[in-house]
Amino acid sequence: MILWTIRHTKPYNPKDVCYGRLDFDVSPTFEEESDKALKALVESGAKPTRLFSSPLIRCTKFADKASKMLDLHVEKEPAIIELNFGTWEGQKLTAVPRSEMHAWTSDLRGYRFPQGENFYDIDKRVGNFLDKLSDDGEYLCITHAGVIASLQHSRCGLPDNIFVEGMFSYAMVTKFEFVRNKNGAFQGTFTKIHDGIQMPPLNMEKA
């Protein structure tokens, strides 16, 4: 099975706050970012037969554009929505209580954000979605950094101590190639096809 993923373009976040489930619109760079990503996708020989999108606006706008180019219906899929950062949503990282920040930096994938999720929760919901797909299918998901990283960690063997979510670029295109293991779960490899706009480093220290 082949799964292509595209991370959403740069969101409009002028206050530079933590966002996961916050439904931010896209930035003015949307057209340029999305054009380059879709061009890279097509030039890589992608021929998906189904198109899935996170239900958040920053993904559905991209998916609508991909839908017209690829002549595919957009299927909104809640399983590939971004991590719920709980009480951190809408806050600057520098405003998060230092005890919570320390707990997270001590266990980046395992820490459960207050009233939210941890990254292992994404592994479960994304894995359940993935394993329902056909073995011989080819698919495209317009989604988020947390979801793409989940596939790399839980299904491609990336170690937990390599925290890649904060290094992904906007509009990054990735190709996953999966086969089922003896337990019926997809496992495989990934290749980055296209880099978009690089994220700025996470600012986690108080000014």
Q: How would you describe this protein?
A:
This protein has 207 residues and is an alpha/beta fold. Helix content is 29%, strand content 19%. It has one domain: Rossmann fold (3-Layer(aba) Sandwich). It is built from five helices and eight strands. Helix 4 (119-130) crosses helix 5 (145-156). The radius of gyration is 17 Å and the shape is globular. The model has no long low-confidence stretch (mean pLDDT 95).
Helix-strand layout with pairing:
Blueprint: E1 2-7, H1 30-43, E2 50-53, H2 57-70, E3 74-76, H3 98-106, H4 119-130, E4 138-143, H5 145-156, E5 169-170, E6 173-180, E7 186-194, E8 197-198
Parallel strand pairs: 1-4, 2-3, 2-4
Antiparallel strand pairs: 1-6, 5-8, 6-7
What's the total helix number? 5
Low-confidence stretches: none
Q: Looking at the structure, what is the overall shape?
A: globular
Number of domains: 1
Kindly state the percentage of residues in helix: 25-40%
Helix/strand-derived category reads alpha/beta
The CATH superfamily is known as: Phosphoglycerate mutase-like
Biggest sheet details: 6 strands, mixed
Chain-averaged pLDDT: 95
The percent range for strand residues is: 15-25%
Give the number of DSSP strands: 8
